[in-house]
Amino acid sequence: MRADARKNYDRLLAVGREVVTEHGAEASLRDVARKADVGLGTLYRHFPTREALLEALLRTNVDELTTQAADRETSSTPEDALTSWLRDSVALTHEYRGVAALLTAAMDDPESALNASCVALHDAGTRALERAHTAGIARTDIDGTDLFALIAALAWLYDQPSLAPRADHLVGVISGAVLTGQAGSGVSQGRPRARR
Amino acid sequence: MRADARKNYDRLLAVGREVVTEHGAEASLRDVARKADVGLGTLYRHFPTREALLEALLRTNVDELTTQAADRETSSTPEDALTSWLRDSVALTHEYRGVAALLTAAMDDPESALNASCVALHDAGTRALERAHTAGIARTDIDGTDLFALIAALAWLYDQPSLAPRADHLVGVISGAVLTGQAGSGVSQGRPRARR
DNA sequence: ACCTGAACACCGTTCAAGT
DNA sequence: ACCTGAACACCGTTCAAGT
């Protein structure tokens, strides 16, 4: 990549992060180009789609999460591995407003720049869930896609100002619904375990 | 209301229903006016905000639901009343794509034309939940707003093409998480009760 | 190779001018 | 009273012209 191109790319990424943090995943791309002092065509050259830009902004987060999940496959109990994955995924997904819908849409679409991130997330969750299944601590009528749907739904709740205050609590409620067995009514009835 | 105004109002409502059904709550209002053969200003005169139009489209549904919920306060068991409210609310909220976000936003905003519908929904749910609480069949760390958040999140799932296939199942999972006590692991572990 | 910005086809919202 | 559509300020996306 040529030096001037590199500079533009980096600036677009930095400005993109600011703008998306402030206005969410649906932020104006024109605004990004403007604030980066770059022609609109230059933005489209580096990031042909909105997904491409958001993928670049999320990649490090997704990578961190998947390596952490891999570590926990050996270092944590099945229960901790699963609940950690759940909480980390929710945290990642509400990094920017609107990410939940974006990732969810990218799941179906192999052409989307975000598809790989989706699959990585989905698969890490599936592995944590299956480990929990064989340990007998998670309900067996839930699969990896259900789990993905639940974290997406929770992430969406964080984006809604009127509901966000209850979102932390509901993460606990839903964790409890996924876990089962010895956890029993302790998990489903008591206060949500204050982890984090 | 003058006869010509009435005609325009009715046409806008009918066309609005079609367009919103097809394109969701974020549908182009310009498109509605165009297809209704009405000036853009006429649309804004009858429906000063997007919420006003959607409120008109949803009012009958909300009214039906709240009267049904009131009926069930005496005619149904606390459990049936609660699960029925939950399923009916989800059904209503995914009447059109994007309604969940709209209702959720209107919750906070007393100025929104949808605020009354929100409150009606919220309150009907709260009553069903409190009845379940006194009957000892619902977890007590969940309040009416939590319940509202859960149905909004589920409604949102129905709007996501990649997750919609699992949404029915997850309604069952979450119903089970809200209910507690004698239902115990039967609800939380078994297949979701195939109601509907 | 890479950058630029005008051009095109859309929005939502307002409001002067008409009947 | 009510209706109309031009006007304004925004979008996303493409692409001919420049360096």
Structure at a glance:
2 copies of one chain form a homodimer. Helices cover 73% and strands 0% of the residues of chain A. With 196 residues, chain A is mostly helical.
Describe, in plain words, how this protein is organized in 3D:
The structure is a homodimer of 196-residue chains. With 196 residues, chain A is mostly helical. Chain A is 73% helix and 0% strand. At the A-B interface, helix 6, helix 8, helix 9 and helix 10 of A face helix 6, helix 8, helix 9 and helix 10 of B. The structure holds a DNA duplex (19 and 19 nucleotides).
Give the largest interface.
A-B, 40 and 40 residues
Largest sheet of chain A: none
Unreliable spans of chain A are: 181-196
Helix content of chain A: over 70%
Determine the N-to-C terminus distance of chain A: 41 Å
Mean pLDDT of chain A: 92
Oligomer: homodimer
Radius of gyration of chain A: 19 Å
Q: Helix and strand string of chain A, N-terminal first?
A: HHHHHHHHHH
Globular, elongated, flat, extended or rod-shaped: what is the shape of chain A? Answer: elongated
Residue fraction in strands of chain A: under 5%
Count the E strands of chain A.
0
Structural class, judged by helices and strands of chain A? Answer: mainly alpha
Number of helices of chain A: 10
